[in-house]
Amino acid sequence: MLIGQYKHTIDIKKRLALPIKFRGELGVKVIVTKGIENCLVVYTIKEWEIMSQKLGNLPVSQGEARSFARHLLASAMEVELDKLGRILLPDYLKDYSDLKKNVVICGLSNRLEIWDEQKWNDYSKNAEKGVEEIVSKLGSLGI
Fold first, then answer.
1. pTM for this structure?
2. Where are the chain's structural domains?
3. Least buried of 15, 54, 65, 117, by fewest C-beta within 10 Å?
């Protein structure tokens, strides 16, 4: 299971080492794409197949569904982990998420998110303020 948060740095060659704890579960290749709130999302090949099938089944007649599918699918890139567990981040994804040198990699059960460290700190601080309200709304979803 992919859980926890880890601080890492992007090297001068735009490579990012993924946490050792996750590498066995991730495999040799992963999919990196745009996320929501200007982070990047990393999927295993298996999880990406599930997600892309869901996106492919969205109704093309609905503009919001088309936009969301484009957001994730058109920006997706298959990348290979090197011997040291590093991935090369394409410039367009790095630019989208405004990643600088310091990043936070968050495990979210079936995927990872990659955040610029300062943006993650700001997001976390703001999100914590509204946790009680969020939890009360999620109760209807069985959480």
1. 0.89
2. 2-117
3. 54
